Amino acid sequence: MNLAWYWTALIAFVIVNFLLISASVLVYAERKVSGYMQNRPGPNRVGPFGFLQPFADVVKLVFKENIVPALANPFVHSLAPMMMVVIAMTAGALIPFAHNVVIADMDVSVLVLLALTSISVYGVTLAGWSSNSKYSLLGGLRSSAQMISYELSMGLSVLSVVLIASSLSLTEIVTDQAGGWGILGWNVFRNPIGAILFIVTAFAETNRAPFDLPEAEQELVGGYHTEYSGMKFGMFFLAEYVNFFIASFVIVTLFFGGYMLPFESLILAQWPALAGSIPLMIMQIGTVIIKAGFFAYVFIWVRWTLPRFKYQQLMTLGWKYLLPIALVNAMLVAVGVMIFS
Amino acid sequence: MTASILFFVLASVAIAAALGMLISRNPVNSALWLILNLFCVAGLYLTVNAEFIAVIQVLVYAGAIMVLFLFVIMLLNLSVLPDLKRIEWRRIIAFIMGMGLLAMLMFIVANTLDMVPDPVTLQVAAETGSATSLAKVLFTQYAMPLEVIGILLLAATIGAVVIAKKKPV
Question: Can you give the residue range of the structural domain that contains B113?
């Protein structure tokens, strides 16, 4: 799809603002859900049902003093939070939100996504190093070790999806899931092990509990962002929420039919006039947001349910269980694709 | 037109980043310059429509290898070298001009020996640069070298594991 540059710029503007707003909604959702899970009301003072709480938090962060430690490397100290946010936002350009609604429809968008995950580790590592604090450094080192270890399993589970769709483009992976009866064409039914692997590694790559060792507050005070204050800390906070929302979009796109409505082929067979129309596009955007919202809820749900892993448990899980399972799964899927197609 | 402007911008940033990597006195800053350089080279690949190679460049070099470099540099906690007292401009200018002369001579020699590759149009580059065509060539024409490289890398990995273990297995 070749749009004029101003349309692309407009869509990009809308998506960036959508991600910013959704980050604050997710912060509210996280605090509210955790509150109910711990049998307390959660934020309920600012605005109706406390809904304006995240905005109050942002205002607070903006007005806080920006403190840079005396022995820190000031340039890298400022660069790290920017990198985190920019990389998190860039991934939004690759997600297909509806049929033909995607900013950068590349042939290799799956690989771009993996590349973005692998460079997002710089933000955490550099933040940890530049603060010149032992807690920050430990957090940064833990995160680079963790993200490198889980990238392999993530890449292999993505590979199994690429094999099924025989394409590296996210839009083609979505359209490939249209076959089958109703929702049975979704990759989660064709490749269930890959789906579980991807969801687990997505938790590790976004540094969310139970894999939030880089910021384990009981051991490391705050981990890699111990020495950050004000809006620089706010940018790490923002990047974390944008990251796991984007991760939910990627989970949906790769394994749960992307923007496709459940039973879309049956609906289109019933009302053929709907194909390619604006109402269908709006319904598709709504569908992908609802699906991604569900997985964002799963991220919050897991965080307040499971305790954190110990460091050696994390490495054992990554290298001794997930990686062999991912290898065998990729091979089984390859054999399956060879037999059935 | 846009592609050539982008090319010159990216190329000059890449050269500047390479120089920054060489003359930077702080090892972490050096590594950061190198990362910038790798990104610029990936951008150069994009200007000639080689999307796959560009992404692989970021994924492998910037995403995996440089993360390990940075990891090691941080663990070693290397000290920052002292700044140079004075810079000899005469030598720097002489070096740049000498390199320029060498590049010109190399080009002329290559041209007379007919070793300069023919320019490829962007359409052809886009076709040969895609993942599918690359995979076809790799797994048919160059299947044997690919397998050999795979075995070599496996042997290197096993060797690294053996060396990393203190006691002999």
Answer: 2-119
